[in-house]
Write a structure and sequence with these properties.
globular
Length: 259
């Protein structure tokens, strides 16, 4: 079981690492059509995972509250979204304006982007850790397939993020190896956050429904704020919509069939 959890925690980090490694193979940014397809697929997986793997288990685990079983799900969900909103207010947003002229301004923008992506990765790592902690605790409402699917969805989302970091750093004069390394480092916080969450899970098992819905809120915020705009604006938006459908349906099937 420990090996399964370790692999699951490393999957999102692998997505960031592979995206960062694109700096070795591409002279320009990731193809827009491919990026929209990846964003759409990841959004579909994460929305379905938020519902079936996080919110529904949260309410099922609170069934002892009767008609008030929705309270942990609602409270945790709202706090999850507000927490990510606070991060976006306190730290620079991922979509940094790159129109400012001058190498120092561009380098500052790139540095701010690295910080933004790194901090956004923390709640995503926590979400995966919470699911694996719930599964390891023996909760019948949380499945290994649900945890794995969420980890895969986040990994797909992290793939273009890795490229978003490494490629601008390369354009600022860093070597391909260093640019890739900085991109990889931005994702290392995810398995660390997931591991810490699992370590303290025994202390918070009584409030696990709140943590599950908190993770759902964080995931939905990322989908609304980052993935949906990315897949919907400009050309090839239909591809993003189609891949959203596929990702949502695939996650739903996995969670129901394998759960």
């Amino acid at each position: 079981m420990n090996m399964i959890i370790a692999k699951g925690l490393l999957i999102p980090f692998l997505g960031t690492s592979l995206g960062s490694a694109l700096v070795f193979f591409m002279k320009k940014e990731l193809n827009r059509k491919v990026q929209k397809m990846l964003s759409g697929f990841a959004a579909g997986v994460m929305v379905a995972a938020s519902i079936w793997s996080l919110l529904i288990p949260s309410m099922d685990m609170s069934e002892g509250m009767g008609r008030l079983a929705f309270i942990p799900a609602v409270v945790g969900f709202c706090f999850g979204m507000l927490f990510l909103l606070l991060l976006d207010i306190v730290i620079p947003h991922m979509h940094i304006d790159n129109t400012i002229e001058g190498p120092k301004s561009k380098l500052k923008n790139t540095t701010m982007m690295v910080l933004a992506v790194t901090l956004h990765n923390i709640p995503e790592g926590m979400a995966v850790g919470i699911l694996y902690a719930g599964w390891a605790s023996g909760s019948v409402q949380i499945t290994q397939a649900g945890a794995l699917s969420l980890a895969l969805g986040i990994a797909i989302q992290n793939f273009p993020e890795g490229a978003i970091i490494s490629m601008p750093l390369r354009s600022q004069g860093l070597s391909k190896a260093k640019a890739c390394w900085f991109g990889i480092l931005s994702g290392i916080v995810e398995p660390i956050a997931g591991f810490i969450t699992i370590l303290i899970s025994s202390m918070v098992i009584s409030v696990l429904p709140y943590f599950l819905s908190f993770a759902a809120g964080a995931m939905i915020y990322v989908v609304i704020e980052e993935l949906v705009p990315e897949m919907a604006e400009g050309k090839h938006s239909n591809w993003g919509t189609i891949l959203f459908m596929i990702g949502f349906a695939l996650m739903m099937m996995l969670d129901v069939a394998l759960g």
